[in-house]
Amino acid sequence: MRVIDLSSPVDAAGWEPDPIVHEIMTPAEGAAHMAAEMKEHFGLDFDPADLPGGELLSLDTLTLTSHTGTHVDAPSHYGSVGDYGRPRNIDEMPLDWFLRPAVVLDVSDVGVGAIGVERIEKQIAEIGYTPQPLDIVMLHTGASQHAGTSRYFTDFAGLDGPATDFLLDLGVRVIGTDAWSLDAPFGHMIRTFQETGDRSVLWPAHFAGRRREYCQVERLAHLDTLPTHGFRVSCFPVKITGAGAGWTRAVALIDE
């Protein structure tokens, strides 16, 4: 079995609208820290100099949102009330949603804007495979080439409302994208709303989750290296109690 990494890194050096803070405690600093903690909490005296090289363990402390890097959005991210009842948090979602046969739809020709039903239907016809219930569908928009830069947050394509419903009608419950959002960019949605007055163009993919329970996987990578179907994806979210999202190390599993 071949394992292909589909995850974007959590990288404090990359550009983020909500910057990542990554503080690193060296092994030597970790030794002094651990000695102080053992003294304070357990009344134990310990001299770090007794350790080889005066070092113990390094320690990383990060400040970031649960939507940084590759992550899974839970229904509770889309709103506080769902037509189907209380939207579940990420720690409440069924695990069997996140290890499933997967499908890649190449919509990289769309550019910046909204992806409609016709484009999804066209791609499904081209690959000769219709997503089955609980398949994981992933959109290759080409946006991941801009990861780590400000363009990643402005230059991509996202699903419109009817296209989202089309996939959900097929029984899909996890939809992924290599873009920052499953919706079109802020600028595109807001300009379209200002021109038309149509509120349905504002965050339609996310707001579909208020009517129908499903999860999104955002900020995937390397979708261009995958076959269109005939493989599985594992994207189990980190179990953060009460959270609207959880990070995931998404991978493709291809039998050889």
Write a concise keyword list for the protein shown above.
256 residues; Glucose Oxidase, domain 1; 2 domains; nine-stranded mixed beta sheet; two-stranded antiparallel ribbon; 5 helices; 13 strands; 21% strand
CATH homologous superfamily descriptor of the largest domain = Putative cyclase
Query: Can you tell me the CATH topology of the largest domain?
Result: Glucose Oxidase, domain 1
Task: Estimate the global geometry from the Cα principal axes.
Answer: elongated
**Shape-level CATH architecture of the largest domain:** 3-Layer(bba) Sandwich
Average of pLDDT = 96
Radius of gyration, in Å, reads 21 Å
What is the count of structural domains? 2
Beta-strand portion reads 15-25%
Supply the helix-strand structural class: alpha/beta
Helical content band: 10-25%
Number of helices: 5
Task: Compute the number of strand runs.
Answer: 13
* Helix and strand run: EEHEEEEHEEHEHHEEEE
Q: What is the end-to-end distance?
A: 5 Å
Per CATH, the class of the largest domain reads Alpha Beta
Low-pLDDT segments: none
* Cross-sheet strand order for the largest sheet: 1-13-11-5-7-9-10-4-12
Quaternary state, please? single chain
The biggest beta sheet reads: 9 strands, mixed
